[in-house]
Amino acid sequence: MMGYHPLVKRLLDGELSLAELPPELRAEGEEALRLLGAVDRAPVALSPLLDERVMAAVRSHAASPAHRAWRWLNTPREVELRLRLRPWTVWAGALAAAAGLALLLGRPAPAPERGLATQVRVGLRDSVFVRFVLYAPGARRVAVAGTFNQWDRSAAPLVPAGTSGVWTTTLALPVGQHQYAFVVDGARWVVDPAAPAVDDGFGRRNSIVAVTAQGAHTL
Amino acid sequence: MGLEGEATDAEIVRAVLAGDVERYAVLVRRYRERYARYASRMLGSRDVAEDAVQDALVRAFDRLADCREPDKFAGWLFLILRNRCYAEQRRRQREGRPLDEADEMFAAPDRPDGAYEQVERTHALERALQHLTAEQREVFVLKHTEGLAYEEIAGVTGATVASLKMRMHRAYDRLRELMKEHLE
């Protein structure tokens, strides 16, 4: 038996009706429709015990030390900072920040959407401030989402540095390895061009930053 | 159902990630049947499909922190189940297990004698589907069992509409060949 005529395939695709087929193809069309008539669309009932089996596994995994450690590393915490500063250090810091920004803005025009997650300062024993930078000229909104904020697209917006196209934010991240990506205009996921990326197992790429007590590293 | 039934996927995912593990049961109830038919038709066995659905739900919990868009949990879970189905098929091929050894899941329902031929044809189609490539079987199942349009299938599989149509048209030809005696 040969394959179906292209018009009969369009009938099977729902793009033509039987009446629209040339008379010489009607018999082949009727035969093809018997094929679709054999499709079983009845629901498939699974064991009522499946729910309990899944939840037993879930509870067991949730109680495992590895899972608890992973969750601990990924759970955002409120961090209280107590600083005792002499006034001159504030001015020195402000000058250093201004110089850094001037250097950043004074560089030649970079390629679109260049980014960087870098250590800013080791602030706490189990948290490190990490600065996220993305060059995204033309973007209306930029945020960073990752394992540290449950991939919430609105939790960590970046702030534009004037009209230069550079967006930055600084987050306190717990020690551990974090996956993240930038979200441009609320919908477009962009990996950090300045950091290594891994496949997330579902066809997309995530950037990686490792945070240790000594600082943040892009592996 | 109560309030549980009204909670969105995103709300439940965030609650589970915050430590309320028991809320995950809501997602299990919500999606177990929805994806059972796809897995059954892809794997040709209800028992194997049940294992796949169970594994996918547990794996989704383990990787929940990687779910970038909790409001799209359903599609994310589908991709996990789909990967699991493909892995199962690769495992079967490696082990050289004939596809026809898959459990007979479609026990003939009680129907009038006049419908016997129809039941036989349905069984023949289920057996024939197992002789397609996994990609051909998937597009056939998603279109004709799950009722998705080509554009929707492209959205969940990442393939283009043109390549999906090509797979489907090859599947039609192969099914015609395999079902010859049941269609004439």
Description:
The complex is a heterodimer of chains A (219) and B (184). In chain A, 29% of the residues lie in helices and 27% in strands. Chain A is of the alpha+beta class. In chain A, strands 3, 6, 7, 8, 9 and 10 form a 6-stranded antiparallel beta sheet that branches. A 4-stranded antiparallel beta sheet of chain A has the order 1-2-5-4, with no helix packed on it. In chain A, helix 1 (6-12) packs parallel to helix 2. The radius of gyration of chain A is 28 Å and the shape is elongated. Chain B is mainly α and 184 residues long. Chain B folds into 2 domains: 7-105, Rna Polymerase Sigma Factor, Chain: A (Orthogonal Bundle); 112-184, Arc Repressor Mutant, subunit A (Orthogonal Bundle). Chain B is 70% helix and 0% strand. Chain B has 10 helices and no strands. In chain B, helix 3 (24-43) crosses helix 7 (134-145), helix 4 (46-62) crosses helix 5 (73-94) and helix 7 (134-145) crosses helix 9. The longest helix of chain B has 22 residues, at 73-94. Chain B is elongated, with a radius of gyration of 18 Å. The interface between A and B is large, with 52 and 64 residues.
Write out key terms for the chains shown.
heterodimer; A: 219 residues; Immunoglobulin-like; six-stranded antiparallel β-sheet; 5 helices; elongated; B: 184 residues; mainly alpha; Rna Polymerase Sigma Factor, Chain: A; Arc Repressor Mutant, subunit A; 2 domains; 10 helices; 0% strand
- Using the CA coordinates, give the radius of gyration of chain A: 28 Å
CATH topology name of the largest domain in chain B: Rna Polymerase Sigma Factor, Chain: A
Major sheet of chain B: size, sense and barrel closure?
none
CATH topology term of one domain in chain A: Immunoglobulin-like
Percentage of β-strand residues of chain A: 25-35%
Q: For the report, how would you describe the main beta sheet of chain A?
A: 6 strands, antiparallel
Number of helices of chain B: 10
CATH architecture of the largest domain in chain B: Orthogonal Bundle
Uncertain regions spanning at least 5 consecutive residues of chain B: 100-108
Strand residues, percent of chain B: under 5%
The assigned CATH architecture of one domain in chain A is Sandwich
Count of β-strands of chain B: 0
How much helical structure, as a percent, in the residues of chain A? 25-40%
Instruction: Provide the low-confidence segments of chain A as ranges.
Output: 119-124
Q: Could you say which overall geometry of chain A the principal axes of the C-alpha atoms support? A: elongated
The CATH superfamily of the largest domain in chain B turns out to be RNA polymerase sigma factor, region 2, helix turn helix motif
Please, how many helices of chain A? Answer: 5
Which structural category fits the helices and strands of chain B?
A: mainly alpha
| H-E order of chain B | HHHHHHHHHH
Q: What top-tier CATH class of the largest domain in chain B fits best?
A: Mainly Alpha
What is the quaternary state of this protein?
A: heterodimer
